[in-house]
Amino acid sequence: MANRLWRCVTNSQMKENMSKSDLGALSLSRRGVLAGGAATAAMTSAPAAIAQAAASSPMTPAEPAPMMPVSFEVNGQREDLTLDTRTTLLDALREHLHMTGTKKGCDHGQCGACTVMVNGVRINSCLSLAVQHQGDKVTTIEGLGTPDKLHPMQAAFIKHDGYQCGYCTPGQICSAVAVLDEIKRGVPSHVQADVSARPQATNMELRERMSGNICRCGAYSNIAEAMGEVAGVRA
After folding, report:
1. Between 26 and 67, residue with greater pLDDT
2. What is the chain's percent helix, strand, coil content, to nearest 5?
3. Rounded distance, CA 175 to CA 51, Å?
4. What are the strands, taking DSSP E only, across 115-188?
5. What is the pLDDT of residues 1-18, one digit of tens each?
6. Which residues, 6+ apart, have CB-to-CB distance to 123 below 8 Å?
7. 22, pLDDT greater than 70
8. Is the model's pTM score more than 0.85?
């Protein structure tokens, strides 16, 4: 009992001994917390208020994309188009000319599925703007052969099973045709030890030149065999 009374008296004395400055500090601390909470709430609600104000304000219509006429030859036929200047050659072929043999894979120039030949040289059509090809001659997979009369490379791909799902095959075949033409014209490659010498259609040469065409099914060996047959060598 005496101990309890002593503790009560002690606590009472401690409270009385607290200075006014201490109480003021505690009071300021509480005010600071309240002020900080109010500021946080205001900051949280600000984006919503800004978004609401933006939604209620009248929208200025965006300017239409610039259009430009372009004319080029596709598989021997002249095509006249008026296109958004941002349209890629790939989209012009697929969406405007409805030549869907050329495939859209990565759309970043990394897979080769969109390969076509422009003036005899292979390019990734997803990286090239259509309006850049005024007067050019474009060859797609549809222009290489027909079901009744296949291009030798198309026939070789079938014979050697140079595909599985077939999605990358149009780009593979267009690239393969262009590769053999590069070798025939003497265009050197990275694996050629002597760039002044005439390149040969070796297995290593064919694989290096076709390295930009990705086959997720893994038909690379069969593709090399098909190319070797058309080139008249054992790849």
Report:
1. 67
2. 50, 10, 40
3. 50
4. 115-118, 121-124, 137-139
5. 545 544 544 555 555 555
6. 89, 115, 116, 117
7. no
8. no
Token duo for residue 104: 């859209």
| φ, ψ dihedrals at 120, nearest 5° | 85, -5
DSSP string, 40-92: HHHHHHHHHHHHHHHHHSPPPPPPPPPEEEEEEEETTEEEEEEEETT-BHHHI
CA–CA distances in Å: residue 10 to residues 5, 14, 18, 22, 26: 9, 6, 13, 19, 21
Average pLDDT, the chain: 87
- The 10s digit of each residue's pLDDT in 94-109 is 999 999 999 999 999 9
Contact yes or no for 191/202 (Cβ under 8 A): no
Least confident segment among 9-18, 55-64, 166-175, 208-217:
9-18
- SS3 of 2-49: the string is HHHHHHHHHHHHHHHHCCHHHHHHHHHHHHHHHHHHHHHHHHHHHHHH
Domains along the sequence of the chain with CATH? 65-142 (3.10.20.30), 144-235 (1.10.150.120)
Interatomic CA distance for residues 105 and 40, integer angstroms: 47
Q: Do residues 133 and 89 make contact, with C-beta atoms less than 8 angstroms apart?
A: yes
> How many Å apart are CA 92 and CA 9, to the nearest integer?
93
pLDDT value at residue 46: 64
